[in-house]
From TrEMBL:
<protein>
    <submittedName>
        <fullName>Uncharacterized protein</fullName>
    </submittedName>
</protein>
Length: 79
């Protein structure tokens, strides 16, 4: 019982420390952040699509989008 209590205390302390480190790192990154250029985003997207799994996921999303567009498509009658 005492060992369990000690482990819980240690876990709680470790989680608090991890939370502090996360917050410090997050603030550090936020301060260093510069506005992202659109061209940089396109380059990142281009690099990510080199992975076969990502390409496959993008293809599935495109198919899903086409299906959704078709389902919500409405033709306006011309009189």
């Amino acid at each position: 019982r005492q060992i369990s209590s000690q482990l819980n205390t240690q876990l709680a302390n470790d989680l608090r420390q991890l939370g502090k480190l996360y917050e410090e790192r997050f603030n550090e990154i936020a301060q260093q952040r510069t506005p992202t250029k659109l061209s940089d985003l396109y380059n990142l997207m281009k690099n990510v699509t080199r992975f076969p799994v990502v390409r496959e996921q993008i293809a599935v999303v495109k198919v899903g989008r086409k299906i959704m567009m078709k389902q919500h498509e409405y033709e306006i009658p011309i009189e």
